[in-house]
Amino acid sequence: MKIKLEVTGGFTGKAGAQTIEEDTDCLDPAIAAQIDHALKLLPDQTWGQSYLSPHPKSWDFLHKLTIIDTHGEKTAQFHSGVGPTGLTRIAELLTSAPGDEDPHS
Question: If you average pLDDT over residues 8-23, what whole number do you get?
Answer without folding.
Answer: 76
